[in-house]
Amino acid sequence: MPRGPGLAAIVAFAACRAAARIEAPPPPADPTRFPHSQHVSLACGECHGVTPPGANDHAPCDRDQCHQREFTQPPGAFCAVCHANVDATGATKSTLKPYPRVDPWRAAPSRFDHATHLDRGKMERAVGFHVACEDCHAQGDAAYPSTATHADCARCHAAEVKLGERAPSMSDCDSCHAAGAVERHPRRLIRGDLQFDHRLHQADAAGGHISCETCHDQTRFAKQRSDHAPPPIAACVGCHDDAGRVPPNQRMRICETCHTERSESLGTLAPRDHLPATELPVDHTLAFRSDHADAAAADPSRCARCHTQLSGNRNGACDECHQTMRPRDHTISFRELDHGSEAAADATRCATCHVADFCTACHTQLPRSHLPRESFLLEHGGQARVNIRACVTCHDPDTSCVRCHPGNAGTSSP
What we know:
Blueprint: H1 6-14, E1 83-85, E2 95-96, E3 105-107, H2 114-117, H3 120-127, H4 133-136, H5 150-157, E4 181-183, H6 212-215, H7 233-240, H8 288-298, H9 300-304, H10 318-322, H11 334-345, H12 347-351, H13 356-363, H14 373-386, H15 388-392
Antiparallel strand pairs: 1-2, 3-4
C-alpha cells in the first residue's frame, strides 16, 4: 500500500512555524509612579519645561504650596517617585530612575494622527513643506527608528512657528495627550526569536532606495495607534524572493534570514505566506485538482490569496477549467434524463455556469418526446398521467390544456 505524506509532511510543515505564544498580562502599575491624576489642577507647563521636573534643585516640586515639607523629612516613599535610592547623608550620589519612565504603562498617552501628518497638501498649506517619516523617526545608529520626542514636534508646533488655529501649540498639552494611563504599545513589534534591523532595509542589494511606505503602506491612513498595523508577511516576500534586490541566501524560505532559533534543512518547510505566489501550497498535490471543491467551498478567502484575477490568476485560473470542463455527472444521458430533476432540486448549482438564456435556448424548442407531432397529439395523455410535472414545466393547464380539454379547465388533469 503506497504511503502518503502523512505524519512526515505534518512534522516538516510545522518545523518552521512559530509556536503560538500567549501574551502575558501586564504587571500592576508601579505604586511609585508619578500620580498625574492628583496634579490635574496644575498646568502641564508648570512642571514640564525645558529640563525634566526636579532637575533644578528639585524645582518646581520644592515650594511652599507643593512638597516643601517632604523635602525636610527623612527619605521615604515620596523620594521613590524619582529616585532608585537616596543617601540622606549626601556622601554618595542618589540614583535617579530613568526619565521618562519606561515600563508596561504609559501615562498621558499621546494621540497622534498619521493620516493628517502625511497629507502632503494639508501639510504644505500649514507649514510649507511635506512631513516625511524621517522628520519624526530618526534612524541613527540603532536597529529601530527612534520614537518622536517633544523636540521633533516643536519643529512645527512651537509658538514661534505661529501656526495659530491651524494646529495645536506645544503648550496645548490636552490636544495631544489623553488623561490617565494605558498599557504601553511595544515599539518593537518583532518578538520571540525574530530579528530585524531597519538599517539593513534602507537600500536593496542593487542600491535601490527602500522607502518606509514599501513596508508600512497603511501608515498614511492611520488615525490612531490601533490603526498602525505592522507590515504583512507579503511585503517581505515581494523583496526577499526577488534575486535582483536580495541575495539568494536571504530568501524568505531560509529560516535564519529572520529567525535566531530556526535553520533551513531538508526537514523544514516554510509556511505558505513565506513563499512567492509562483509556488504551490503543500496540500496542492496531484489529487488536489480533483478534491479542491470542498476546500474552496469551506474557505474561498484562502484561494483568493493567490487566485486574484477574476476567479484565478493567469497561471491557474478557475475559469480556465470550469468554463471548458463539464462536471462529472454531465454524462451523455444527463441532457435527456437527469438535468430536469437536478435543476429542480438545486437551480443555484446550474447557475454557477449557465445563465437563463442558456436554458431558454433549448426550452423554447419542442422536446424530442413531442415528435413526431401527429402521433404525440394522440399519445400525450398517457405521458401526462405518468409525469404531469414534465408538462407544467412549459404548459399552463388553465391556458394550454383548456383549448382542447374545456371540461378540465382549472384542473391539472389532462
